[in-house]
Automatic annotation (TrEMBL):
SUPFAM superfamilies xref list: Sm-like ribonucleoproteins
GO cellular component entries: NatC complex
Domain Sm: 27-86
Protein name: Sm domain-containing protein
UniProt signal peptide: none
Length: 111
């Protein structure tokens, strides 16, 4: 397992030295709280762990929130899931918990 982690780190560093700004942006998002909305109306709140080339997102310590339309005391139901993969095809929105300055720098609107 330790060897796998070293290999992954080397690949990321190689990509970044090739000028890949996307890898640098993804690194800035690591271990931040992320809220991801999916096409069926559910939301997942967890710690951003990684994203692959296809756009699938992995969240750790994730909690699922879903709307309950039937008569219950709370309009939202939640359950703890742990580590989950959210496919790109299901993802509708992503929000990261960070300051406005960080948001602007991630969007490359600020010099």
């Amino acid at each position: 397992m330790e060897t796998e982690q070293r290999t992954l780190t080397c690949q990321v560093e190689t990509s970044e030295t090739n000028g890949s700004s996307l890898v640098g942006t993804a690194k800035k998002l690591l271990f931040r709280q992320m809220l991801v909305g999916v096409s069926d109306g559910r939301f997942f709140l967890g710690t951003f762990y990684c994203i692959d080339k296809q756009g699938n997102i992995i969240l750790q310590d994730a909690v699922e929130y879903r709307n309950t339309r039937h008569s219950s005391p709370s309009p939202m139901e939640q359950r703890c899931l742990g580590l989950i993969l959210i496919p790109f095809s299901c993802r509708k929105s992503c929000h990261v918990d960070c300051s406005i300055e960080e948001q602007l720098s991630l969007l490359s609107l600020k010099e």
